[in-house]
Amino acid sequence: MTEERSSTAWEVVIGLEVHVQLACRSKLFSGASTAFGAPPNSQVCAIDMGLPGTLPSVNREAVDMAIRFGLAANARINRTCVFERKNYFYPDLPKGYQTTQLRQPIVGAGFMDVQLDDGSDFRVRIHHAHLEEDAGKSLHDFQVDSTAIDLNRAGMPLLEIVTEPDLRSACQAVAFARQLHALVAGLGICDGHMEQGSLRFDVNVSVRPGGSSSLGTRTETKNLNSFRFMEQAIEQEVRRQINLLERGAAVRQETRLYNGETGQAAALRTKEEAGDYRYFPCPDLLPVRVEQGHIDHLRASLPERPEMRQARLMDKWGLPAAEAALLAEQAATASYFEATAMACDDARLAAQWITGTLARNLKRDKISLQDSPVSAEALGGLLQRVKDNTLSAPLARQVFDALWQGEGSCADDVIASQGLRQVTDESCLERLVEQVLTEHPEQVKNYKAADSARQKKMIGFFVGQAMKTSKGTANPEQLNRWLHKKLS
Ligand code: ADP
Ligand code: MG
What distance in angstroms lies between residue 217's CA and the mean position of ligand 1's atoms? Predict the structure, then answer.
């Protein structure tokens, strides 16, 4: 079968299970701290270890966070939810069971509409979301010949969000994952630190012949904590399954692991069934009841949603969908944008600079927008000087860098103290070009002897020299015009 046939004949089906670590101060059933990075086993109490005689109690902050997610995901909130024990044995699970929710989770069915860069969107149904505790961690490289256990993570509050199998490509899955990341961060229920495992994705993947309405056999690849790894793992798994099916072999329902560092995937175990875990309601915890009034109160306090922010930015400021989506992902970015756009009275220019130069600098120096050394007002002031032609694009970047380094509190200061004002005076530019050409007679001779294609390449040399001489202040378009005039 040809490549082309295989890429059109199979439909990809994906459902996600997402573990969101809730940004609570204490654990789901105990008062132990949830802070990241503490020395091993320094944040474990008797309840987390399940010592005899201890009694867990439910952290209401975690319940509220789950409800906030449910409301934001258009979901039904179950006013009574029940914790159950999921029994299994593993060294990092000191109690011998995980306290989780199965039959009556806090959040019922809902949906999220996911925006793509081209402005289109698609709907992903949420099957449910439940609260559960995390397990501890096995450390295999802590000691030479034995495995060590760190229980700091045991009992950490997690919200597991389960989607219906509504995603149809790796690209859709990543778009959904990014939007979910932005949503939980924006709600303030998760710190969003993927590299610390605050958001972990299990991807269930199957393929089926195009047009078929029944589902194919799926595999589940566990614990992906980066969007890139997620995309790679899905694409690789789709290829593997299609290969198997086209050879006449069958896909085995199994749990798999993907190693992002090596790009290798491997089967971990065959799929277990709910029955294997002997679930039963936890006798130590009463069902949790939530008043309707409390739900209404939480609903009233929800922040504006990213997709609503995006719509507002498109509507009010005339931004294209992709740019608006980038700026709307976080409330702080959107307000920064609006303040900048207001200060310079040019939304497109502000959007360009924030998603471009500013975003790159923040990423490079690993700082968040809140800590940006260049405020929205300062950037707005700089962009005013771009608009009124005081600064060319390269000069504006120089001024921005100076502001970033703290060399002046506003663009006008930097322009004055470093003499960065753009030179637009025609006679100055004419003199500059004449000087450069006199200093490089050899290059001028070569230029005049060359054909027009080569001349196009050679002109850059003169532009560079003129920019160097003028310390970047020459207006680029005018400079070009003068060079062409004097060289012809
Ligand atoms: P389990 O609880 O055994 O893991 P579920 O039926 O609850 O199984 O499904 C778990 C996840 O797998 C859900 O996100 C669901 O959408 C997804 N899923 C189920 N069947 C398929 C399939 N055939 N292909 C892709 N995803 C699937
Ligand atoms: Mg599962």
Answer: 10
